[in-house]
Amino acid sequence: MTTPTARRGWQALAAIAAMAIITITVVAFARPGRTPGPAFPPLHPAAAPAGWRHLTLPNRTAVLSYPPSLRPLAGDKVAVSAARRSPGGAFQLYLNATPRQGSERLAGWAAFRLNLLRSNDAASAHEVAAAAGVKFRGGTGSCLIDDYVTRIGAHHYQEIACLVQGRTSASVIVAATPAAMWAQARPLLLRAVASYLIR
Amino acid sequence: MSFTLARSAAGLALVAALAAGCGTAVTAHSAAPKAHSAAPAHAVTTPAAPSPAAVAHHHRHRHHFRPVRPMVITPPAPPATTPAQMANPIPQGNGGDQDADNNGGPSDGDGNI
User: Does B22 score more than 80 pLDDT?
Assistant: First the structure.
């Protein structure tokens, strides 16, 4: 025979347990799931179109191709760059190839690149899409599409950045444009990345 | 006995209603940062890490329940603390290798060496 007090205690316990179960269930169902981001676009490695120009890395391990509307750009001695700039000097298209210099690895490339951006040049950087096992001319790469805002000038860029592993070397290719021009520039940037040749 | 069961059922119904309310609140709350992150322009205008003075100022705003708002004019943050917010081994402002990315241009592919 249970006393009213004991019965009330059991009721309170049951209510708490029910509340816990219901809360967990509701929260689990109501929580918005991580919707998968846009997939990394297919990259079809192919030689650059006729008329495109080429820049070979100083260590001769890779060749960056760029359309004739871009001009070579001075930068790191070990790297090559080409860009198209507005009459006011703003970057419209930017291509860069740099030999692997740090602890970049195919695995975890997206996180590495985002961390590098955030710790160096960018006030913020967000992944848009990423892919591994991307085929390149002469190698395989891990690629990332991201957008970031520079600390200086608060310029908003979107880029494709790939770490490409060849037979004897690894290097990074970057193809960037202002985020506002991304939709328009995307095919050309993808073409430039797809034509990247590594040895 | 049936009265006890009715009480239990009523209690469970109340609990369920409360839990549903909690769930909705959680959903709304978790959706908020998404909308915030969808506007990168906001991040542009916000410094990467506010100065201590700015933090203190912001702190005061968040606690509206304080009866008296201190009339203290916070001095500007000492400049020494501002650049030290982020470890950036590559000098900005046309420093270092004078790459585009040291001047607000697109970031190159260097490995930060």
Answer: no
Give the minimum alpha-carbon distance from B76 to chain A in angstroms, rounded to a whole number: 21
> What average pLDDT score do residues B29-56 get?
35
Q: What are the angstrom distances between the C-alpha of B27 and each of A19, A27, A124, B14, B39?
A: 18, 8, 25, 20, 20
3-state SS, residue A7: helix
- The interface residues of chain A toward chain B in range 131-150, judged by CB-CB distance below 8 A, are 147-150
Walking along chain A (199 residues) 10 residues at a time, the average pLDDT comes out as 69 70 51 66 97 98 98 93 96 97 94 95 96 98 98 96 98 98 98 98
Residues 6+ apart with CB under 8 A from B107: A116, A117, A120, A121, A122, A148, A150, A157, A159, A174, A176, B101
A152 touches chain B (CB under 8 A): yes
